[in-house]
């Protein structure tokens, strides 16, 4: 028996080494664009780590994935996951997630790097660099499932497959035409049993077949919902390159350091291109175009819009095709396009027809329908790639796709414009004038629920510009005088933004991007008017809308004078999504917005930026603590930082934080003039540090404001003496100890009738009207709502009378295992590091519109729990809902 086991182990090890060698050979090289020898690069020499985060599955995606990418890149507020750690729990969650992560679904838009991440994951394993506890990794791209049967597995015993640690990787769920079946009556548990591919895959994912294997599935967002969430242990999202990763990519790909720096500098100057470069394949397109342009004379026009970049990419690919197959180089662009017109127009027709059908992959008969000679390999150079796919044992079929969905959309838009200017009856029968064509496509795109025509529309409007038509001379038989048509179309778009009923934020954002593509000079004014309308809207902005607004503010070439997050009708999460807009404003008011460390990282990166216009920053009444201050100081000490005013009032700043701040000011002493440290506890040492800086002739600091946090709240000026009002107490509450304590009881108390008495809720208010700034402390037991309310809160009724469950009150719900903040029947659960303490402090700053809650330790250390930000319009009173007892201290 032992001999058999030894022999089996020996077989496994021999096979494993042989298999790893084959995997190294297969995956050590990367093809950017088309799989041609000149595009071949060693993966390890160019690979740049992508930003992968743990995500949550939301509803149906209602935006074009490129717009989703543009908006999301600026809100990277999660812990990144290395692709080699895809099956490992996040640091600090090992105990909670042990042996749970079996099936991982990774979502990301086309070209974001899903397949390259898979390739790197396998290569690092095969080369012995990572995941050496895994015996085998098997990669099965969905589009090749019926072709790729892994011939190296022919000698592998099924018993080995069941007893070894195995990872199955299914890449590209969105490219699959296999129907997955998750009904339980289609059960397959024996590896030797034959069944359809769809049934076998479904049973693998459900855990019926090979229940011990690990499974990694990649997909574009729209297709990810095909797999029920109960079968996914971890959902991750690839957000592409972060800022440092983007620069790293260009420097790795471009060997000429000076040229790489010039390209990076140009991309940073164009906000729209800069954002798009978070998509790896767009980095490749941009570097291909810009390297080619920089070889020309310095006067070469550098692309500034998406359409311009894609036109130049088409020219570059045609030039490369000419050099390869026709042995000519340096041809005039117009002549080059003219000689390739027939090929490009046919490919554009294919792109348009397949886009309208929703197809990103197509067969030979689709090419033949568009008049393309499938035997001419030169047709595909730089534009199409081919993949073999075997649909039956009898024959193989080739399937085709464009190098990226966005390039298919570009060619489709070109086909529509080409057909219009060449009097193609397909378009002229419907649209007689260019503005009418634009309007028709705009209206169709706006009706789309998932925004699948958003980028197509942007390209169509961009191609219509006379400057872009001139770039396409040679393809176009003649150009259309379009300046008046463009003015008509921009006016139509602006009217849609302002007056279209039910227009979603995503469609609105894409219309702004259309204006950008048409180089509309009034774009910034239109954005400000849009922002003014959403600020005063009664409808609450979703976090997604806030991401979109932040994106709009960033792409504008004009600087926003003031960004005040409190003016936006949204949630705390929505305000956090707006933080990246700080990069394009002079004055950022982020006070009292429950910011996170990730928000502070974004602010710090803005402070480090060479072109940041930010000169005033207010972070008051956020729980920065030492960690947050350290992050901000990393930006403050940068020589690029030009900040003149910094407010961190009430931010839990300690003596340690003061060391960070003082060090930053010593490193960069030339700009900060005013520092507000009030309502913190810097200690004597912290005060001395900043007093010394005030005297330092090299330091520009002129104004320092500080008041000790603890001293301030315990002083007579803010400490407030409260008593409970018997006329408001519910009959199941007893008041005692000079109306300082309220206790819940079973028996009703014989209180006289009173209009102010709570009828059905075990609640009580205080007698005293709260002053503009006041502080008090409460001890609670078993559970309580600690609240501030208007006197006019309803006293008779159901749950709408409960403190925090209506528009008239704000409360903190305290229990033995959690806190949650309530207002207008909406709650926010609050994570605390330890069990909630039974003593809570409340600080009201009515003029500032902040209501803050803190837990109080035995040593009287205050830990921030939550801050409400609002505008108080009536006199305020303290109130309590009592489940055990509450006691007013002081």
TrEMBL record:
Source taxon at top rank: Eukaryota
Key words, A-Z: ATP-binding, Cytoplasm, Leucine-rich repeat, Nucleotide-binding, Repeat
A Gene Ontology term for the protein's cellular component: cytoplasm
Main location per the UniProt record: cytoplasm
Pfam families with a match to the protein in the record: FISNA, LRR_6, NACHT, NLRC4_HD2, PRY, SPRY, WHD_NOD2
Localization per Swiss-Prot or TrEMBL: Cytoplasm
CDD domains associated with the record: SPRY_PRY_SNTX
Residue ranges crossing the lipid bilayer per the database entry: none
Domain (B30.2/SPRY): residue spans on this chain: 702-890
A GO MF term: ATP binding
UniProt cross-references to InterPro entries, sorted A to Z: B30.2/SPRY, B30.2/SPRY_sf, Butyrophylin_SPRY, ConA-like_dom_sf, Leu-rich_rpt, LRR_dom_sf, NACHT-assoc, NACHT_NTPase
PANTHER family hit by this protein: NACHT, LRR AND CARD DOMAINS-CONTAINING
Annotated protein name in UniProt: Si:ch211-255g12.8
Organism per entry: Sinocyclocheilus anshuiensis
């Amino acid at each position: 028996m032992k001999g058999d086991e030894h022999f089996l182990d020996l077989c496994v090890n021999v096979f494993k080494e042989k298999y790893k060698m084959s995997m190294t050979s297969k995956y050590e090289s990367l093809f950017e664009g088309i799989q041609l020898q000149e595009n071949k690069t060693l993966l390890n020499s160019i690979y740049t780590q992508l930003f992968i985060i743990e995500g949550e599955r939301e509803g149906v995606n209602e935006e074009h994935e490129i717009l989703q990418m543009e908006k999301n890149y600026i809100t990277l507020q999660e812990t990144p996951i290395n692709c080699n750690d895809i099956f490992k729990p996040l640091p600090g969650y090992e105990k909670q997630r042990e042996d749970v992560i079996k099936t991982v679904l990774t979502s990301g838009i086309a070209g974001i790097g899903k397949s390259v991440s898979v390739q790197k994951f396998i290569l690092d394993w095969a080369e012995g660099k990572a995941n050496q506890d895994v015996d085998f990794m098997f990669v099965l791209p969905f589009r090749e499932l019926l072709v790729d049967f892994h011939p190296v597995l022919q000698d592998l015993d099924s018993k080995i497959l069941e007893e070894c640690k195995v990872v199955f990787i299914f890449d590209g769920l969105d490219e699959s035409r296999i129907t997955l079946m998750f009904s339980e009556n289609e059960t397959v548990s024996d590896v030797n049993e034959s069944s359809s591919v769809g049934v076998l895959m479904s049973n693998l994912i459900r855990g019926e077949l090979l229940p011990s294997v690990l499974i990694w599935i990649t997909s574009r967002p729209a297709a990810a919902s095909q797999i029920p969430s109960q079968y996914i242990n971890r959902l991750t999202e690839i957000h592409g390159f972060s800022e440092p990763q983007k620069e790293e990519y260009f420097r790795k790909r471009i060997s000429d350091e000076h040229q790489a720096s010039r390209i990076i500098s140009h991309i940073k100057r164009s906000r729209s291109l800069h954002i798009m470069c978070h998509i790896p394949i767009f980095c490749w397109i941009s570097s291909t175009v810009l390297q080619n342009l920089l070889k020309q004379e310095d006067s070469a026009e550098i692309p500034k819009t998406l359409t311009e970049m894609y036109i130049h990419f088409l020219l570059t690919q045609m030039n490369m095709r000419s050099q390869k197959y026709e042995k000519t180089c340096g041809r005039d662009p117009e002549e080059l396009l003219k000689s390739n017109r027939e090929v490009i127009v046919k490919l554009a027709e294919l792109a348009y027809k397949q886009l309208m059908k929703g197809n990103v992959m197509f067969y030979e008969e689709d090419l033949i329908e568009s008049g393309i000679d499938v035997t001419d390999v030169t047709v595909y150079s730089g534009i199409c790639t081919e993949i073999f796919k075997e649909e039956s044992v009898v024959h193989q079929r080739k399937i085709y796709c464009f190098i990226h969905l966005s390039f298919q959309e570009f060619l489709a838009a070109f086909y529509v414009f080409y057909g219009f200017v060449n009097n193609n009856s397909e378009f002229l029968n419907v649209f007689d004038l260019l503005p009418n064509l634009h309007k028709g496509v705009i209206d169709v795109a706006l009706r789309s629920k998932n925004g699948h025509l958003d980028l197509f529309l942007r390209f169509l409007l961009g191609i219509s510009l006379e400057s872009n038509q001139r770039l396409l001379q040679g393809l176009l038989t003649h150009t259309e005088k379009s300046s008046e048509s463009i003015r008509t179309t921009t006016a139509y778009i602006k009217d849609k933004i302002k007056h279209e009923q039910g227009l979603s934020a995503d469609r609105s954002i894409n219309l702004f991007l259309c204006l950008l593509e048409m180089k509309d000079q009034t774009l910034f004014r239109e954005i400000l008017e849009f922002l003014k309308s959403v600020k005063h809207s009664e409808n609450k902005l979703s976090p997604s809308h806030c991401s979109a607004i932040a994106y709009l503010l960033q792409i504008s070439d004009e600087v926003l004078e003031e960004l005040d997050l409190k003016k936006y009708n949204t949630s705390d999460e929505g305000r956090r999504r707006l933080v990246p807009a700080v990069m394009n404003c002079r004055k950022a008011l982020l006070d009292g917005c429950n910011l996170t460390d990730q928000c502070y990282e974004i602010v710090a990166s803005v402070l480090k930026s060479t072109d940041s216009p930010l000169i005033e920053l207010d972070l008051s009444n956020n729980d920065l603590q030492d960690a947050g201050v350290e992050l901000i100081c990393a930006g403050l000490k940068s020589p690029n930082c030009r900040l003149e005013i910094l407010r961190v009032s009430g931010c839990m700043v300690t003596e340690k934080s003061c060391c960070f701040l003082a060090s930053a000011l010593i490193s960069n002493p030339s700009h900060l003039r005013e520092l507000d440290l009030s309502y913190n506890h810097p200690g004597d040492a912290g005060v001395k540090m900043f007093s010394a800086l005030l005297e330092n002739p090299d330091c520009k600091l002129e104004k320092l404001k500080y008041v000790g946090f603890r001293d301030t709240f315990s002083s007579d000026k803010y400490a407030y003496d409260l008593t409970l009002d018997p006329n408001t107490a519910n009959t199941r509450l007893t008041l005692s100890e000079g109306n300082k304590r309220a206790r819940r009881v079973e028996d009703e108390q014989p209180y006289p009738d009173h209009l102010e008495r709570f009828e059905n809720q075990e609640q009580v208010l205080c007698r005293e009207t709260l002053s503009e700034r006041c502080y008090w402390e409460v001890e609670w037991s078993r559970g309580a709502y600690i609240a501030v309310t208007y006197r006019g809160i309803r006293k008779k009724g159901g749950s709408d009378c409960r403190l925090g469950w209506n528009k008239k009150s704000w409360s903190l719900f305290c229990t033995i295992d959690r806190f949650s903040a309530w207002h207008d029947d909406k709650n926010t659960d609050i994570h605390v590091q330890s069990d909630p303490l039974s003593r809570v402090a409340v600080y009201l700053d009515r003029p500032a519109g902040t209501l803050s809650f803190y837990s109080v330790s035995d040593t009287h250390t205050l830990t921030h729990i939550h801050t409400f930000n609002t505008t108080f319009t009536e006199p305020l009173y303290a109130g309590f809902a009592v489940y055990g007892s509450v006691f007013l201290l002081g």
